[in-house]
Amino acid sequence: MTVLERHPVTQRTVLVINSGSSSIKYQLVDPDSGASLASGLVERIGEETGAITHKHGEERTEITEPIPDHGYGLSEVLRLFEQQGPSLADAHIVAVGHRVVQGGRYFSGPALIDDEVVARIEQLVPLGPLHNPAHLKGIEVGRRLLSDVPHVAVFDTAFFQNLPEEAARYALDREVADTYSIRRYGAHGTSHQFVSGAVSELLGRDDLKQVVLHLGNGASASAVVAGRAVDTSMGLTPLEGLVMGGRTGDIDPAAVFHLARVAGMSIDEIDHLFNRGSGMKGLAGDNDMREVWKRIGAGEQEAREAMDIYLHRLVKYVGAYTAVMAGLDALTFTAGIGENDANLRRELGERLAYMGVEIDPELNAVRSDEPRVISTPDSKVTVLVVPTNEELAIARQSLTLI
Ligand code: ADP
Q: How far apart are CA 57 and CA 39, in angstroms?
């Protein structure tokens, strides 16, 4: 059965674009069924040889060629859609949704992109220096090459835009903080919103006190009460909070002064060390949890210790957020580690047994793409695994504006 037969005339689709500094990730999504009709990745833009991988059903097309800029990359993607399918002309694209990491204080929801929105995203470059310039490139070429559909920006920070002030404001001199826009913006908001919404739906309750653990290479926790985020672990940037693949998460900022003064490191070197050379990579030599478990299995003490540090940080956040919310109904795991790492879920469950968390070993061992409960009926907190789907969330949020 062809895609078009499965999705007859009533079908509408959203093209979701996540533009990075040297890459463009894309997915054609049916926002109604949730199906992904095609997806792909343009890599190594601006390097000597670039690559494009386009997936349509079971078919996978790979191209290796120089991709000088984002405009050329996206025009190649549009060509692949026409050559390999699905034809965009037949797919009834109703919007293009762009992922944008930093929305600052301007955006508490998705925004229909016009020149003013572009200018705002540009103004936010100092707060998102790695991401926003890359998103702007994607938006610019997207609007140029797909000019007859509305383009929507969906911000990673939007779900946390209305955090209570007591959670969002650092105890930093008010004038300095406000002059330089230093506050907790959070990140992964699209995922936390999607996952916490799915939990409410699955449990049939909209009054839940939830903790969501988004554990991927980047990792963040959020506290959500009745659908509203009340705290989150990432801050001014995605560096704060949990132990991550390559990031320290929480660390005394005085470590920066110390490294600058005593080790003579530059700000850029410390930035790199904290954002890329730390976390599981810095502690255990590898940022992939599967490797860390292998090393633990081989009896490597440093790997075990790294896992304990990772778990200790999670225990602290779950405890703190339970206190902030004065209770906890649902604890949910998502993203690469959260969805796949049953060992980690089991060990965290054991450390949270004091609060009545009881994970069912058989349910925990199930591998599935479906949202599911993994706690026992007696568990005081319902524990779930909910696969995140940021592309679908972006597609659905885009639709709310058109
Ligand atoms: P991101 O989007 O932040 O790059 P993902 O959410 O895709 O990250 O998560 C990637 C991480 O998921 C990998 O680095 C790895 O640590 C972890 N991961 C993936 N599969 C497994 C697995 N089967 N067991 C444990 N960890 C896994």
A: 9
